[in-house]
Amino acid sequence: MGILLWILFGALVGGVASWVMGSSKGGLLGDIVIGIVGAVIGGFIMSFFGKSGVGSFNLYSFLVALLGACLLIVIVRALRR
User: Fold this and answer.
1) Stated pTM of the model
2) 72: burial class by Cβ within 10 Å (0-12, 13-18, 19+)?
């Protein structure tokens, strides 16, 4: 995916993950970072199960990235305590 699609995808995934997890303090930039890093984490996790990670703008990639973004939020919360 091109850089603009990654930013758009990251904003979408990060916004949904922040809403699901109840943390919206980062704003748009925070949501983009959460979404992009979450996509990387989700892809890494899925590789352990022999599945593909985030490759295009589709529902499967969205769910993989959402899983990673939610996990990222949980880890950040645990480290802040």
Assistant:
1) 0.85
2) buried
